[in-house]
């Protein structure tokens, strides 16, 4: 599975770097505004891990807010894209979140993982590592596919199954790319999180109306606003280390 994810995102890296920030409404007008509302109001001097940094959008936001950012991704191509974005402002390197993480205990105040964890089969070791490297009182904020969306969109027979799904994405730079990820029920997501952390917030985002009337976003809102206002696509969890 790791090899499939790596192959897909090596192909997708250029699309993420060039197109995703502007052209992906699901990111720009849906997931990212909801995630950013959960961030601390004052991020100055916070040690932040961007866990699954892709082309570096979140890393750049945190740097602008004065955080000390470390960014990691499984894909070397994504790491290079992130480096081009943030320059020498942060440490960026390849890292497998399913393995032991190369950080000392209690290193970070905040771990942010955007639309990454559904590529990992077993979350328990990853969350134990997140707990280990977070400082007491530190937060984990992550977004994943909503289990209801995957269950409905892929017409699955068993909501409670933990299963591997496949989807083909057709992007401008890469063309068709097969992307594989895991679907799991809501109870599994919450139970594995609460085994290590105290859950503070659960968010089922709806499109952010702030961008609705902007010329570059109008087509996306016409297509997706009603659907995403009534059918959750992503799930966001904010949790805390005691």
Concise description?
This protein has one domain: Rossmann fold.
Task: Walk me through the structure.
By secondary structure, the protein is α/β, with parallel strands linked by helices. The chain has one domain (2-147, 186-240): Vaccinia Virus protein VP39 (Rossmann fold, 3-Layer(aba) Sandwich). It has eight helices and nine strands. It has a seven-stranded mixed sheet, with helices on both faces. Strands 6-7 form a two-stranded antiparallel sheet. α1 packs parallel to α4 (76-86). The protein is globular and about 45 Å long. The model has no long low-confidence stretch (mean pLDDT 94).
Task: Give the arrangement of secondary structure elements.
Elements: H1 2-23, H2 25-36, E1 47-51, H3 57-64, E2 68-73, H4 76-86, E3 91-94, E4 108-114, H5 123-133, E5 134-145, H6 147-153, E6 163-171, E7 175-183, H7 186-194, E8 198-203, H8 218-230, E9 234-240
Looking at CATH, the homologous superfamily is Vaccinia Virus protein VP39
Structural class call reads alpha/beta
On the 0 to 100 scale, the average pLDDT is: 94
Question: Judging from the principal axes of the Cα atoms, what is the shape?
Answer: globular
- In which range does the helix fraction lie? 25-40%
Query: Strand-and-helix sequence, N→C?
Result: HHEHEHEEHEHEEHEHE
CATH architecture grouping:
3-Layer(aba) Sandwich
**So what's the CATH class?**
Alpha Beta
Strand content: 25-35%
- Indicate how many domains the architecture comprises: 1
SS summary, helix count: 8
Major β-sheet annotation: 7 strands, mixed
Q: Uncertain runs with pLDDT below 50, 5 residues or more?
A: none
Radius of gyration: 17 Å
By DSSP, the count of extended strands is 9
The termini sit apart by: 33 Å
**Spatial order of strands in the largest sheet:** 3-2-1-4-5-9-8
């Amino acid at each position: 599975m790791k090899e499939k994810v790596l192959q897909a995102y090596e192909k997708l890296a250029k699309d993420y770097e060039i197109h995703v920030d502007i052209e992906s409404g699901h990111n720009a007008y849906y997931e990212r505004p909801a995630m950013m509302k959960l961030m601390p109001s004052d991020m100055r001097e916070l040690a932040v891990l961007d866990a699954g940094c892709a082309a570096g959008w979140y890393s750049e936001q945190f740097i602008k807010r004065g955080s000390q950012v470390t960014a990691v991704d499984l894909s070397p191509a994504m790491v290079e894209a992130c480096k081009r974005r943030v320059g020498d402002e942060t440490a960026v390197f390849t890292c497998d979140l399913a393995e032991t993480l190369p950080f000392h205990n209690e290193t970070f105040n905040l771990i942010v993982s955007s639309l990454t964890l559904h590529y990992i089969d077993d979350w328990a070791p990853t969350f134990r590592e997140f707990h280990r490297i977070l400082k007491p009182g530190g937060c984990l904020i992550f977004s994943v596919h909503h289990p209801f969306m995957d269950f409905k969109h892929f017409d699955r027979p068993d909501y409670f199954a933990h299963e591997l799904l496949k989807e083909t994405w057709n992007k401008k730079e890469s063309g068709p790319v097969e992307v594989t990820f895991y679907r799991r029920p809501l109870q599994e997501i919450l139970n594995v999180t609460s085994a290590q952390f105290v859950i503070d917030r659960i968010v089922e985002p709806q499109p952010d109306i702030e961008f609705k009337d902007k010329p570059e976003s109008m087509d996306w809102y016409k297509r997706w606003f009603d659907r995403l206002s009534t059918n959750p696509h992503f799930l966001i969890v904010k949790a805390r280390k005691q």
